Amino acid sequence: MPSHTALPVDSTAPAAQPGGWWAVCLCAGWCGTCRDYRALFDALAQAHPEVRFEWVDIEDESELAGDLDVETFPTLLIADGRKAHFLGPLLPQAAVLERLLTTLRSGAPSGAATDPMAQEVFDRVRADRTVAGT
């Protein structure tokens, strides 16, 4: 898998508002599960243009992950554009991510504690992707 490859412009965020929701997948190129999950993640981006989907290879873009130790792939970071609400591994199934996004976007508690480092990672990803223009 190439290092970070931005999703095609029409599948990411022109429809997403600058402060809108983000779904960031933290994966690694050597991970077979991540490679398989990529197609589902891209399909969800197409189905949910109001959410900005970003793919981060934590080895090729280690500066974005910082000190975060990702042990299980895929690991997802979900944020509302300002605040991280979830950081953790998910089953690599589209329905699992859709359900989590629906729950978080509705304002209902997700039942998952947010890692304090999640905000730092989100801030770096958001700044990088904003500067990169993707």
UniProtKB/TrEMBL annotation:
It holds the Pfam family Thioredoxin. Residues 1-106 form the Thioredoxin domain. InterPro entries: Thioredoxin-like_sf (IPR036249), Thioredoxin_domain (IPR013766). This is Thioredoxin. It comes from Acidovorax temperans.
